[in-house]
Amino acid sequence: MAVDRARWEKGITYEAFKAAMTRNQDRFAENEGRVALDPETVKTFKSLPQRLRVLVLAEDWCGDVVANLPILGRLAKEVPTLDVRVFYRDQNLDLMERWLNQGKYQSIPVLVFFDEDFRELGHWIERPASVTARRAQLREKIFAAHPEFGSPEAPVDQLPEDVRGQLQAALQKMREDLVPFANAEVQRELRELVSKVAA
Amino acid sequence: MTTRPVKVKITYCAECGYEPQTLELTKALMYEFGNRLSAIEIVPWESGTFDVSVDGQLVHSMKREGGFPEPHVISAAIRRTAGV
After folding, report:
1. For B15, which of A63, A90, A164 is closest by C-beta distance?
2. What is the pLDDT of residues A61-98, one digit of tens each?
3. C-alpha B55: how far from chain center
4. Which of A3, A33, B45, B49 has the fewest Cβ atoms within 10 Å of its own Cβ atom?
5. Looking at CA atoms only, how far is residue A171 from chain B in angstroms?
């Protein structure tokens, strides 16, 4: 099904999505508050020759939504020509089917950029590959530095509870430390995407 | 016949929205086995995990088998372990 004005208007605004969150609202707000928008990102989006519609597929339980959607939200506040509508993935599976990750995974968030006449200009899914790769590298380092965590491939439920807690804390710290890099990478990819559109 | 209570652990990705599948499996096992289970432990995790172990033996892994387990597969593993 094509996205047209009628479908578009069934989406909710970014602010409405935030208000309706049933979980992770605090984390989402915290992430939004610490987004450091690169002036280059704002400049790129402000210099676009046309208004852009951004269709977002999201759910409030998803870690990548909580991490990355606030970047778009902050950007849209700075760039009034960005019009954002959020659609819940699980209530809009026909839309999800159109923008599957690698053609098979229902990864979110999905950001789909349209012009004013609903022509698709490009889309972005989940998180930058560079962030996934960096996380994997750092995860390997954590396991290498802590033999008590066992093998990275072993089921985590076989670890004693206290060790599992330590591993969880180490992984959370790693992801926290990576936030500035991850946010910068998201912005770089979005700049590149819209720059191609504008070219 | 005497059976041995077994422990089931379900480790699920809390960032992937797998709570419904976790609760559905937990409920199915509670109804089927009742106090023939010593415990059902639910472990919130990450990284797309959905693992089920029975007395420490991994009987389903989303990464290994793909997808979510059919409850009858877990039931069969419990019966084997418990000697039912």
Report:
1. A63
2. 999 999 999 999 999 999 999 999 999 999 999 999 99
3. 10
4. A33
5. 10
Whether B1 maps to a domain, the answer reads: no
Interchain proximity B51–A61, CB inside 8 Å:
no
* Regions of chain B short of the pLDDT cut 50: 1
**What is the ipTM for the molecules in this complex?**
0.73
Chain B neighbors of A171, CB-CB under 8 A: 46
| Burial label, A168 (beta-carbon count in 10 A; 0-12, 13-18, 19+) | middle
* Chain centre distance of CA B25: 7
Does the distance separating the beta carbons of B43 and A155 come in below 8 Å?
no
Set of chain B residues whose Cβ sits within 8 Å of the Cβ of A151: none
CATH of the domain at B13: 3.40.30.10
Sketch out chain A's domains with CATH numbers.
5-127+182-198 (3.40.30.10), 130-175 (no CATH)
Domain total in chain B: 1
In a domain, B30, yes or no: yes
Please tell me which residue of chain B has the smallest CA distance to A62.
B15
How far is the C-alpha of A21 from the C-alpha of A81, rounded, in Å?
Answer: 25
How high is the pLDDT of residue B2?
A: 53
The whole-angstrom separation of Cα A5 and Cα B18 is: 33
Provide the mean pLDDT of chain A.
Answer: 95
Q: Is pLDDT of A198 > 80?
A: no
The answer to whether position B55 is within a domain reads yes
- State the pairing for strand pair A110-114/A52-58: antiparallel
Quick check: A61 and B15 CB within 8 A? yes
Torsion of CA A141, A144, A149, A155, to 10 degrees: 80
* B19 occurs within a structural domain: yes
Q: Which domain holds residue B55?
A: 6-82
